[in-house]
Amino acid sequence: GQKTPDKSIGASGRGIFIHKGRDKYVDPEVVAQLDKIRERKGIKKRSIPDEEVEERFFLPLINEGFRILDEGHAVRSSDIDVVYIFGYG
User: Fold this and answer.
1) Mean pLDDT for the stretch of residues 25-46
2) Mean pLDDT score, 10-26
3) What does the DSSP 8-state code read for residue 44?
4) What is the spatial distance between Cα 44 and Cα 47, in angstroms, rounded to a whole number?
5) pTM to 2 decimal places
């Protein structure tokens, strides 16, 4: 169901998408706000290759897996595989 926005953190309940029926569209106000933030911070908009996206998602998971093994929270690497396959978080 729909959650009530948490006013204590300034949440408005709006997201990045506008939903119309089964379709969704990126909210142009969000895009405009992102453009302002990029300009203020001097960040140039660029395309991110699929390989870089994959690396950004998976390398932290791999590093965390090694840390879990190193700290003794898991006995075998296969224990970590099971967590990643059946639910992490």
Assistant:
1) 94
2) 84
3) P
4) 10
5) 0.53
